[in-house]
What we know:
This protein is an alpha/beta fold. Helices cover 27% and strands 22% of the residues.
Amino acid sequence: MPNLSELNFEERTPVIFRQSSGAKTGEIPCRISHGSWESLPAQVASWVKAQIELCQPDSLHIIDGSISEEIRLKEQLVKAGVIIPLPKYENCFLTRTDPKDVARVESKTFISTPEKIETVPPTAEGINGTLGNWMAPEELDEKVKQKFPGCMRGRTMYMIPFSMGPVGGPLSKNGIELTDSCYVAISMSIMTRVGSRVMDCVRKSGEFVKCLHSVGKPLTPGQKDVMWPCNPEETMIAHRPHSSEIISFGSGYGGNSLLGKKCFALRIGSALARQQGWFAEHMLVMGLKKHDSEERRYVCAAFPSACGKTNLAMLNPTLPGYDVTCVGDDIAWLRFDNEGSLRAINPENGFFGVAPGTSDDSNPIAMQTIFKNTLFTNVAMTDDGGVWWEGMTEEAPAHLIDWLGQDWTPDSGKKAAHPNSRFCAPAENCPILDENWEDPQGVKIDAILFGGRRPEGVPLVSESLNWQHGVFMGAALKSEATAAAEHKGKMVMHDPFSMRPFFGYNFGHYLKHWLDMGAKHSATVPRIFMVNWFRKSSAGKFLWPGFGENVRVLDWIMRRCDGYEDIATKSPIGYIPTEESLNTEGLGNIDWAQLFSTPRDFWLDEVSELRQYFKQQVGYSLPQEIQSELDALEKRFNA
Ligand SMILES: Nc1nc2c(ncn2[C@@H]2O[C@H](COP(=O)(O)OP(=O)(O)OP(=O)(O)O)[C@@H](O)[C@H]2O)c(=O)[nH]1
Ligand SMILES: O=C([O-])CC(=O)C(=O)O
Ligand SMILES: [Mn+2]
């Protein structure tokens, strides 16, 4: 770990709040059940004091991040019945949420800036924007006044100092989350680095992202608590990028309540990244090495929620001679270094992964990661104190307790685990964790992948013609809806850069930032690719086996990065592998023609749909370069 005194904190988090005068440390605003109020840095104490006065918790627990603390908190939750021990595994627990609180709620997620145009692009007359929700600062002030006073009555407020990225690292950033959910406190200590060592960093820098979270269900004296308190009618997840503040109310579900993740690392992060010249992205980071080569290459990939990031990050290669390592499975912070290389860190410390579909066949590495020190949410429980979900084994157990806590048998006609049920496991459990995963400088990225669930028209892999065309590919990204948010059904939806729910500022400005950064580093930018593991045959079957076989596609991508020109042909949508260049040995029947076709009718429809989308949703915020790429794509099909 770098010496803290050598780090330039000014450079690390310049815009974040700084308050000169602290509260008098003697004034303790409520009972302190754990930790010492006097030890808090003045600027932390004054902010926390104000939140205590607002939320009126019974007591304050300052998280120190020790093992003994973790054990005590878990014991307490077990006693209350909020988490259930899973004796089949080591230190694993299960929790069941309220059935109304199972996913992110995009419709109640807001970014608050003085000017609306900072947050969302201008939509066409009569069109509802789908690229984020803006809220005026005064309106948010008003909402906070309505929702928060007394919202933690009868509860403990947990104060969680956390670091996104290695503690004290030059690309890392600190936050403090205040929450009245002990489940959140425990989950945060898996997903981020927490505790006193982070507070020491905050003390030095005086800077942190302010995160306030409440389940929104105060208790009256003597009132018995429910297992999963939440307040779906009043849910609001709000962000103030100008002051680096996050305010979340009413939901305990991970994406809404573990504020380091989507709220900080992506929404606040992307806004900071634009100001400071870097990227905060919804991307996995993985390493790939051929046994006969010296060097490990790194790839990052943006796939929308529940579209295969965790699976690719933990890929178990079916081709001999390859070895894959995992740096991160959900979020990447990327920065060009002095040599112009794009370098990535994973700001997280754990995996909050989709459980259903995870099996020894599909993702054996995940299966080796999640049965120690893991907190499961909304999966089913087996009679021997283990967990189960759809797709974990071919045959379902004869009896389970389902995610709603009810008896379940295979003929009960409903899902045993919720489709968005999750495991929350520490990164250190992962047997293929990259040796440089905590390198504070990050790993050097050779390729950027975009991908989504596209049943039609989009080939298995294509390479962009250049950076600008690659940015266009990201802007044009679409995918079938999944269970990770409140959307229903099998609609193909736009999800540019897989960031649609996570942009911290105007998407048009975001594209401009990507274009500008590429132009500035044009000699050294990574290559950009589009992948699609999900194309289907006319009979509705996947054309590509996916999972571990995706290493074949990565192998082709790496050879392109090595400069092999003759393994690709130019198609109207970009470079596509020549038939013999992609290793399909041993795969049996692969319908190459269907897998790689770029049907003209499909793509001309795609062009006109994109034209309409950009016009209706992005308007004059759309950079001219993206419009030109769309025109050029159409021209190539009409040539
Ligand atoms: N057919 C097919 N399905 C896949 C493939 N990779 C992943 N999946 C399925 O996609 C679903 C979600 O995969 P994850 O890897 O958890 O998705 P994610 O992008 O990490 O999701 P978030 O955590 O929500 O951001 C699971 O049901 C997987 O089984 C693949 O290559 N082919
Ligand atoms: O945020 C969440 O709830 C989980 C997640 O990774 C996603 O949806 O992309
Ligand atoms: Mn995600």
